[in-house]
Amino acid sequence: MADNFKQDLPLRARDRTRAKPLSDLMTGVLAETVARRSGMTLDLIAAWDEIAGPDYRECTMPERIRWPRRASDDDPFQPGMLEVACDSAKAIFFQHESNEVLQRVNLFFGFEAVNRLRILQKPVKVATRQHRSMRALTPREEEHLGRMLEGVEDEELRKRLEKLARAVILKQSRTA
């Protein structure tokens, strides 16, 4: 009975009856605010764990990107300076990795967005993320995943594609 009622409702009314996660509603507002205040995107903050690497993901956090001022719209693009907060104990080690971090940031953006790194020594509190435990793939799903990735030569690319494919397979199985 309830299912028939939902099917009879127009599409907009059906959408309003479902609760939406707060994160979905706030992403647009937060993205605009973060971009305006810090000169960077939420995507950079979300990907920081991979950019910083396993040694620095817990003790560093990007603060802002300072873009050089342009006198006119005709001026060529100038890369910015990335400011990163870092725990004092790890700052000197992070400084040694700065070129690699800059390369990863530019790889993330797809162009030379930043060419300098400024390390701000201060305590960094990284929120601990609670990952939902994902169920293991069935043998059939594992076999399908293996077939999809068998032609990928690059090991790093293969790992990332496998992680993405696992998430997609699990999401599809939940909605089916």
Uncertain runs are: none
In total, how many beta strands? 3
Helical content class: 40-55%
Number of helices: 9
Distance between the first and last residues' Cα: 21 Å
Keywords for this entry:
single chain; 176 residues; alpha+beta; three-stranded mixed sheet; 53% helix
Structure report:
The chain is α+β, with helices and mostly antiparallel strands and 176 residues long. Among the domains are: 39-68 and 75-121; 139-175, no CATH class. Helices cover 53% and strands 12% of the residues. It is built from nine helices and three strands; from the N terminus they run αααααββααβαα. The chain has helices at 2-8, 11-16, 22-38, 42-46, 48-52, 88-96, 98-109, 139-149, 155-175, and strands spanning 60-66, 80-86, 114-121. The chain has a three-stranded mixed beta sheet with strand order 1-2-3. It is extended, with a radius of gyration of 22 Å. The two termini are 21 Å apart.
Please give the structural blueprint.
Blueprint: H1 2-8, H2 11-16, H3 22-38, H4 42-46, H5 48-52, E1 60-66, E2 80-86, H6 88-96, H7 98-109, E3 114-121, H8 139-149, H9 155-175
Parallel strand pairs: 2-3
Antiparallel strand pairs: 1-2
Brief characterization of the structure:
Among the domains are: 39-68 and 75-121; 139-175, no CATH class. The protein contains 9 helices and 3 strands, in the order αααααββααβαα.
